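Whether sequence alone determines local backbone shape is best considered at the level of individual chains. The sequence in question and its structure tokens are set out directly beneath this paragraph.

***
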Amino acid sequence: MVSYLQVQNLTRSVGDKTLFHDLCFSIGQGQKVGLIAKNGTGKSTLLNILGGKDQADEGQVIFHNDLRVGYLEQTPSYPTELTVIEACFWHGNETTNLIREYETCMASASQEGLQDILDRMEQLKAWDYETRAKAILSQLFITEFDKPLSQLSGGQLKRVALANTLIMEPDLLILDEPTNHLDLQMIEWLENYLSRSNLTLLMVTHDRYFLDRVCSVIMELDDENIYTYHGNYAYYLEQRAQRLEVARAEVARATNLYRTELDWMRRMPQARGHKARYREEAFYELEKQAHRRIEERQVRLEMKSAYIGSKIFEAEYVSKAYGDRILLKDFYYNFSRYEKLGIVGANGTGKSTFLKMLLGLVKPDSGRFVVGETVRFGYYSQEGMQFDEQMKVIDAVRKTAEYVDLGGGRKLSAMQFLQHFMFSPQQQQNYIYKLSGGEKRRLYLCTVLMQSPNFLVLDEPTNDLDITSLQILEQYLQDFRGCVIIVSHDRYFMDKVVDHLFVFKGNGEVKDFPGNYTQYREWEKSEPKESGVANSQIAPNAPDTRRNQTARKRRMTFRERQEFEALGKEIDALEKEKADIEAALSSGSISVQDITELSKRLPVVNDLLDEKSMRWLELSEIE
């Protein structure tokens, strides 16, 4: 296997904290590697070093010769004056730089070096770069190519950056949290895209289904070291448990031996001076091993929630629209006690707006939400994380509550509660500005949960949380004696926590499905598309009459049949013309005037091919 990337003795510290020390690993051609670590241990820092955005304190990063590397940052940035399509040409990758070089050469009087540029453009498939860009943007539901980036949401900007990275068709693709801000449909598209492709991949993600289905190698960054597991996420869980068991046994043996050696060190000060120097050095190594901490938290945190009555909330024929975009239309629902509801749907279909109307933060156009008197909301939102960065972690939590009521007369102090969410006593004394993005999210989640709400409303709580934090939150919500509504794109998380779904279909249509997300997808794949009424209950055993009506397809008309056959011939002719142009441009035997004319004709041919191929595909779906 050809080695695409070698990392040798990489060390990086931030202040007095060592993120990783003497890190060594390699990635071979075709491997799809998932990188897992707790928040704050240096995942994004490591990827930034590999992507050339940061530098290590020591060590080397060695790429294979002429390797094309694509890197998607966790928080990409572009000049806001650019349009969507301009952003795809702005990031300085090899192809876009070559296109600029070609344009500069064509504008010059001498056109010196044109043939060499044309050869390289052919090699990099630069002629159809814009077409590929538009195709991938469309797959990610970005269709307004001339829209300024300043008018995009953070999620849309992340999708533009993802498209920008995929367009390059890199040999090695490095992705930092690619599924954040993608809706479920786009996550599944990206999952299929990466699974089918032959590219080499290094990815940080906390989406466990995504990891399991895409990655064949899992690397874990833990305790300043890297551990490699050759298998998917399920295999990693099994092998990691074995590794921790072995590590605990080693620490236990080292601790017992350390007691013996410590007694020797105390009793024999003269021996330490000369003859037993080797034993003294071995003692200090043993001391380090004995003091290693193997942290694997399995505690289930059961907290008392405030009493909640039988009346929760009733949505009485609620409607909401922004201009022509209808989010809800005459929506009615009576929420039951102890329901755990998941909300899924494409971005922009009204999921977060629904939560804000329930909480009274946004007013419906018509209808109303009637909320029970005993309901006490705990709201976690993407915009709600506001801390004084100069405060210490423990002080920010104590500002919310000094103690958390567990029920039965049991209480946890703020410090103890934070330890359940993996904030060590040392970390609790850190200033908030020193925390990573994921650690800040975890801290914000703590401040919401410790208020003892009886109705949790969580809008994308899984973004930026590491897998260990997600497991703690899952266990907490499974044990939670209250109501829960969750908006999330984490399929594994939803499957573990919710008992039914609201599926926001767009244009005011909301479906209620009695099951989790995986069950919904299985049902959806087995059922033909329906044109039912908005807000109707999804019934897995739908009537046969509706199925038969939906399954009927119209047949192709005579004119459509003629058009279909003509399109096949036109596409063949265009493909031949494209091949002839590309051959002529790379031949080196045509005049500059011919090169100019053919260079202008090639994008026109590509556009015609796309247009006619799309129409041919539409007609081919008709019987």
